[in-house]
Every structure is written in C-alpha cells, then in structure tokens.
C-alpha cells in the first residue's frame, strides 16, 4: 500500500446513485445534493471527487439514471465551492472534439487552482450516442486508437502555440488553444480490457480498474504498474467500492439485505442490453439476479473496524494507490465514514509497512 493512499468519492450525478433497487436510498440528480456531498467529502478529509458522464438511463421501476447532470459544468461549480479536493470530471472522446475539450479543461484548471483531472472515456453504451446520431461502430482496438489520437491532440493543444494534425479521426489545421494550463490536468482512465490497461499504462496518471474477483484485481493492478514502468513512467491504480456502514456488522448486513430486496430487474436488463448482451442472455441474468446485483460494484458492509480492515486488505494486497468510494445514502453515510473509518485508514498509512494477508484477515 502507498504511504499516501488516496480516498475519494464517486458523486451521484445520476438519480439513484449506484444502487439499482426500490428499497435502497435514492439520491437526487441535483446540484444541491452533489454540492453537499462535495462539501462533506472535503470536510471529511477525502482527497478527490469524481463524476461520470452519462447521457441516457436504464428505465425500470427506479428509472435508474434517467436523470443525470453534465459532468463538466457541475464540476466547475464544485471547484469554486471547494478548496482542497481534486476535481475529476469525465469527457467522452467520441463526442467532444479535442480542441473543445482542451479549452474546457484549461478553464477548469484555472477555476480549481490546479486541481483538475480529466477522466477520459470512449463510449461503452451505444444507445447513449445513437440517440444523438453520434455512434460510430469501431472495434475495441480502433476505439482506443481514436482515444490515443484524441489525447495526443489535447495535450499538444495544452502546450503548443498551434497544432496541425491529420489523423483517421481528427483534423487540426494550425489550431490554437490559449491560454495553456499552468500545470497539465491529471489524466484518468477507466478500463478493464487489455487495450484499456495498455492505454492507461502508456498515457494515464491514474487507472480505474474493475474486476470480478480479488485475484483478478491484484493481477490487473500489477499489470498496469509493470507496463507503465516499462514505458519509463508511473500510473497509479484505483478501484471502486460501495460502503455499507453501521454500528455493528449485523446491522450493516441487515441494510444489505434490505437494499437487495428491491433489486430492479428491468433496469438491470436494460443495462445489460445497452452493453450489447443478447436479449435471451440478458433476460435470463436479470430474472435470476439476486439482491447482490443491486450493488453495481463490489461492496463492503460492517462496522467501522470491519470496513477499514476490508478496505486495507484490498488496497494493500492489490497494491492500489487509491480507492473511490460509493455510499447508498451519501448525506448520512459519507460523514459517518469520515468520522469513524477514514481515521483508521489514515493511521494505517502513517504506520505503513509490510502487510501480509494474515495480518489483515486476522485483524
């Protein structure tokens, strides 16, 4: 584990946050709600706030993510009302021209006094873009080649007086984008495929990784760190985790059971269809979904001590540089996390030394 592990929060920019359930808390997709979460994150001592960019939801009983805010405009406002947390907004390379993106992030870097980060995504859900007439069928290799050319264009515009560039995807003709950012915004990317991890290792400052098993997360984090070193650079690795916190482990597990009771199978079906899963397979999966599927990412449930132990186990053994946190009820859960769990994590940072699997599982 890094001696300065970063902990941040994934803001609920879409209604319902990351719980796909009628019996879970249902955060609003409102600026007022997200502003309070950002202020709570800063007061708690978290290191960053981050938003996704989402253009179409998944319906169902919960109308999951049917209402979303736009990442850049909201994060610009949150940069003004905060002073310390890093401000990581999301940009779709497949719909924003690099010259537009370069100017937007230069502006965000000024507003935030150097705290801006660019989370680059390249389109996972075709429905989001076909509704705009902006979807282009590309292989995964070509999609990452497009993203690479996009990022090269953006970073050149951040540092060169004018840029001329002719690629398969973008054209710049003596293009200017001034002023330049005083410091380059942090480059973030989320991806789980080999193409995605290779892109992260070569170009990103931070990689958000997803995995189905603990062992897979260990392997992916090691891969990104190793390939980045082979390219003479550093890329930090992060994962995501939902925190279900209570006074006791039993009370936290009761919350998990309650949240799972209302799992929205229709929204899950639409989500898997949007990923391109065939209808018969998607329907079978949604129909058989257990309460666990109400959580879109891995979760930990328990008392402050249990939650801290499990987070440290993941961060240490997967050699992660940071963790992005999700809460079912942000306005209640995040401040409680800041009071009870974060001090335990910070204490572990200050006492950082070799940590074994047995140290954590027997804590």
Give a verbal description of the structure.
By secondary structure, the chain is α/β, with parallel strands linked by helices. It has helices at 31-44, 71-81, 98-111, 126-130, 140-157, 194-203, 214-230, 249-261, 265-274, 279-287, 304-317, 330-340, 342-350, 357-361, and strands spanning 6-10, 48-50, 86-92, 116-121, 163-166, 171-175, 186-190, 206-208, 236-245, 299-302, 322-326. It has an 8-stranded parallel β-barrel with strand order 1-2-3-4-7-8-9-11, surrounded by 8 helices. The chain has a two-stranded antiparallel sheet with strand order 5-6. α6 links the parallel β7 and β8. α1 runs parallel beside α12 (330-340), α3 crosses α5 (140-157) and α5 (140-157) packs parallel to α6 (194-203). It is globular, with a radius of gyration of 20 Å. The relative contact order is 0.16. Residues 353-363 have low confidence and may be disordered.
Note the topology.
Layout lengths: L5 E5 L20 H14 L3 E3 L20 H11 L4 E7 L5 H14 L4 E6 L4 H5 L9 H18 L5 E4 L4 E5 L10 E5 L3 H10 L2 E3 L5 H17 L5 E10 L3 H13 L3 H10 L4 H9 L11 E4 L1 H14 L4 E5 L3 H11 L1 H9 L6 H5 L2
Parallel strand pairs: 1-2, 1-11, 2-3, 3-4, 4-7, 7-8, 8-9, 9-10, 9-11
Antiparallel strand pairs: 5-6
Helix pairs in contact: 1-12, 2-3, 3-5, 5-6, 6-7, 9-10, 11-13
Summarize the structure.
With about 375 residues, the chain is an alpha/beta fold. The chain is about 45% helix and about 15% strand. It is built from 14 helices and eleven strands.
